[in-house]
Amino acid sequence: MSLNTLRAEVQHCHNCDLYKDATQAVFGSGPAKARMFLVGETPGDHEDKEGTVFVGPAGHILDKALVDAGIDRSEVYLTNAVKHFRFEERGKRRIHKTPSQAQVKACHPWLRGELKEVRPDLVVCLGAVASRALLGSAFRLTQHRGEILTLPDSTTRVTATIHPSAVLRADDRREAYDGLVKDLTTAVAALAALDQV
User: Fold this and answer.
1) CATH superfamily of 3-195
2) Distance, CA of 172 to CA of 17 (rounded, Å)
């Protein structure tokens, strides 16, 4: 299916229960043939309301980090492992909750469809949920962060870093942010190396 077809079909997804409370499914965005493909965890409150990936506080951090790493956001494909917002209500606020493994698995066909259509040269997993969604439940971000690996059953290269929201939660935000930029810079270098093969 084309990205446009997938984008339309995901709005009718009932593979798990998240659709019941979310405003809408939030599909990926970016060029249909982007060389770099970034995968986050799940839409947040802003994304759920606007229907666009990475437009909330974590998205602003990611935008700045992409610029600092020399990456043009308009040239990368951005998506999440899970397409519906998982949250708990606290007063009038909707607070993000990490999706369960079953929810990640239920959403995997959409992510696989995006990868099949975009056919990127390099995938960047943002955070542990995205990393495990593509590299398996045994993958440990703390052990393999920044390494250039290969997606299972594929020749596509992949690397993993922290999710931009981790910068917002970090005790030392500057250190966390610099680490994110460093990992994204490593991804740029990996793409450049692929050009020389």
Assistant:
1) Uracil-DNA glycosylase-like domain (3.40.470.10)
2) 36
